[in-house]
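Inputs:
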Amino acid sequence: MAAEWTQDELLRYSRHFALPEFGSSGQERLRNSAVLVVGAGGLGCPLLMYLAAAGVGRIGIIDPDAVSLSNLHRQVLYTSEDLGRPKAEVAAKRLAALNPHVEFEVFVEALLSENALELVSRYDVVADGTDNFATRYLVNDACVLTGKINVYAALYRMEGQVAVFNYPLEGERRSTNYRDLYPDPPPPELVPNCEEGGVLGVLPGIIGAIQAAEIIKVLSGVGEPLIDTLLLWDLAAHRQQLISIPKQPGLVIEKLIFYEQLCGSLVTKPATQTMAHEIKPEILRSWLHEGKDILLIDIREPYEFDELNIGGENIPMAELPFQLERLQSGATIVLVCKTGSRSELGVKLLVGQYGLQDVSRLIGGVEGYLGGDF
Amino acid sequence: MSLSILTFGIAKDITGSAVLEWPYDKPLTVGELQVQLLERYPAFRTLASLRLAVNKSYAGPDTPLYPGDEIALIPPVAGG
């Protein structure tokens, strides 16, 4: 069964061979394994580099996005010359140069309910390095349904979370999964993503490397993976916690659902948006000048509003459902956020879920309106 | 007597502090502490998915708390 190692591999992996608990058997297990990395962004870059360097036999990379300038402060696989190119393709090319013994499979597309089960079932372990709740619940449920291990990591500003989900235990039992940790997603956009909330560039390097370590431990059988355990790491003061995760009684995942609705967000931004509900900065300016009867609502968090605002009333996104009566004054509602992406969800929430009629959002947000350099 | 509350993610933003000393005057459960937190920080009302760990293990609302317990507030995060 054990295929011969080439001279290149013997040298390349010699420090793994020398590691007592790892040895050639651990390396052999890596070579016979397949990992699907969902998201080739902040977490995906260090993750992919270490998995490829370590000699995981087959690595799938799925990401629908292209490299953008704001990625480069943390997504260390990409260079300024890669701007506009698909991340999954660029990543695979770099990684093939790093380790020619690894087979790469590239998917320039989003993981969706339609393709998730088929894709996930072709790998041993799935690495969740996505940047939104909808895909995180999708990855989790697809892994539970296909019996795959989900190695999870997520970031917030200067903090990271890592855990190993759905690990096979004795008999047919499986360890806890993402829904044991968080049964329900938070309300739409309550928790800011990297774009809205910011992230320290080096953080995904650290957390993604820990995620890679967990995958290598799981595949090689070395060490004690984070099974039924959540690792929390606050980089600000290096506060670390290992929290045990109990099983949620009665938790059953039977099939995939529509995760965009569950999480109130969209996995990919469709080209056609609700144009009727958008206004440009110059329109808002003229409305304010004319004294038009509008209700200007800044839906950012209070601390953001205090830092910089264009007037109006501050009702954070998550508070909107509790302020419906006041919003239904008859005036045109204009939602404002930082760059215009949160307000898109705000319009969806108020129009789609609560049936309000006259709701618009300010394109470009406060930053676009003020037009400065932020 | 007091409890020690560690905050993570958006819970740290809401409370404005990574560590809180919380008064413990009479016997208290996790659910009762959540009500107290909500009274002091109304923003927690929207954090239905906030998980709370007691002494490094996730705990349900009926779990009793004792002076000196370490509580961690751990909201979900999605960044990648």
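Residues 22 and 36 of chain B are 10 Å apart (CA to CA). Flag for discussion at group meeting.
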